[in-house]
């Protein structure tokens, strides 16, 4: 596994044979050249035959087009994402609405819950994992007792529950997904972000506690999403002005809707508030007239 820092998801690399390899998830578009080089180093003379996505958020699919160009690999995405990717609907893919970027790509096949696929000589079952993304999949290897969890479970939580903020039952779906993972009781979890871990019961306990906090206070979920996406945007750009943050908040549909729901501030006032809060937490820093990652 290539454990990546933000902005990119981890890349999980499987050696399928002496000639072929598979990778799960491709990272963010800003890091695409680095992703290609990491995979060249990992697979050596083998052909990268397949790229499989756990879900279609920008930090997992941003390198898809670059990997297809570099290696000629086939791309498989979750079945429920097919229409949005085929049409390249940047609102539905949460690109334009989040102020994020992704190079357009074409996929070769889809994976549905219940499908079985071989990776690295291991049989993996595709399992629906809605919550962070309602069409997301996780992959479970029953014989080896390993779970590739995407953003459904991290060692310290899970991905932002965006569907709940769009009026879908993201909280209930996340609870169902966590219950599914608890029933599987994997020995090892390989997440979309962070290190692989074996203390799965403890991770689930933390995830349930986080979920319960959001269930008690849905506005906490909205505020968390705001902060995460602002930090993501600034990590992507590396340095922005406060005015550019205000323009982001005013000019993207998701931020505008969340502001109306949770803050009801003018974009400049909201940008100032968020940057001050994120600077106090260490997530951002002020460098003269610029806002930079902390």
Describe the structure.
The protein contains eleven helices and 13 strands. It is α/β, with parallel strands linked by helices and 294 residues long. The protein has three domains: 1-111, Metallo-beta-lactamase, Chain A (4-Layer Sandwich), CATH 3.60.15; 113-216, 4-Layer Sandwich (Metallo-beta-lactamase, Chain A), CATH 3.60.15; 219-293, Arc Repressor Mutant, subunit A (Orthogonal Bundle). A five-stranded mixed beta sheet has the order 1-2-3-4-5, with helices on one face. Strands 6-7-8-9-10 form a five-stranded mixed beta sheet. Strand 4, helix 4 and strand 5 (109-111) form a beta-alpha-beta unit. Helix 7 packs across helix 8. The protein is globular and about 55 Å long.
Quick overview:
The protein is an alpha/beta fold and 294 residues long. The protein is 41% helix and 20% strand. It folds into three domains: 1-111, 4-Layer Sandwich (Metallo-beta-lactamase, Chain A), CATH 3.60.15; 113-216, 4-Layer Sandwich (Metallo-beta-lactamase, Chain A); 219-293, Arc Repressor Mutant, subunit A (Orthogonal Bundle).
